[in-house]
Amino acid sequence: MKTTLLLATLLLPLAATAAEQSFDFKDPKGVNTARFTLDAPLETITGNASGVSGTLTVDPAKPEATKGSIVIDAKTLSVENAMMKEHMHGKDWLDVANHPTITFAISGVEGVKQEGDTATATVKGKFSLKGVEREISVPAKVTLLKDKLGARSGGKMQGDLLVVRTEFTIKRSDYDVNPKAPTDKVADEIVINLAIAGACPK
Amino acid sequence: MRIFLRLLAMGLMLGAVIWWVRAGSHPGWTKNKVFVEKVDEFTEVSYLEEQDRFVPGVDFLAVAGALSLLLGGLSFLRRRQPKVTVG
Predict the structure, then answer these.
(1) What pLDDT does A2 receive?
(2) Do B45 and A163 touch (CB under 8 A)?
């Protein structure tokens, strides 16, 4: 009896983590991109970053326990005008030579509402940009696509896909992104839009 | 020479305007690449694909206008008359 209890105590944590899945967001198809927009007098500036990576560990039964981080390679940030891109990568704006990554590290998930394989929640985490780290909360919509990795990879791998969608706003002045640039020329608020898919091979 | 410069200035401005209109009359800055929105068929994630394409903007028109003015202005410069001595 004692042995059974001891075994049960030892195996309980293992059983609790058995349903956890780790999703890798480095997408070989290049679909994972981060988009940003900010207002300027002549036109709204739209940018794109293709270098998205990171890992999320999710337990569908306990979404509040989700942990992990999403990383954007700052050097992959691009806009449609070459000169504007050069300025954006420069010291005053993002200084990508000295701050090569933009990171969001999850510290907590709350307000989870689940409907089938889709859940919405408020995700809290540390957002790091140009060496400045701030705690922020962002709304997120997460969809689990069971056994869809096989179809997407052309049968090379089997497993699940996790799609994460979020849109949130930050202030560039909070992150030392050219705070001297007047807000009537370039808006202080940057809207970041992320729609990414992670894979969990079986 | 004057007529040639004026015709060149007009042709340059006209050509720039026609190029700008045919490229979609883009009211923003000149682009050397464009983002095309696509959707992944399995995940339904929409993403931007970068394509190399030149799209002239209003700055392109401004440069063409400045060059045209310069060429037109040159045509109004008077050639210094050689001194004629009589007697």
Answers:
(1) 54
(2) yes
